[in-house]
Prior knowledge:
- This protein is an alpha+beta fold.
- The protein has one domain (25-87).
- Helix content is 22%, strand content 28%.
- It has one helix at residues 69-87; strands at residues 25-32, 43-50, 53-61.
Amino acid sequence: MANEGLVLNTFRQWNRFDKDYKWTIQGHVGSNCAANPDNQRSILGMQVFLNRSTVMAKNSTQRVVTLSAKEAELYTATSCAQDMLFVW
């Protein structure tokens, strides 16, 4: 088999001629408030799914210092939404 690049194994068969086919995009996020002991920054993790297939996964330290767990989750959710728009 030749190298085909990214192959999506979706739960539905895609017919490229069907104009009514519905693509679904989902994001799952998680963060750990002030988990890095060196600089007190939160660690974020996210996954973006296109038709239930992972197309992007990210785990990194946040660029800003958040003051609460809710603020860290909001920052992570916003970052995930931006990545979902990029994928879409």
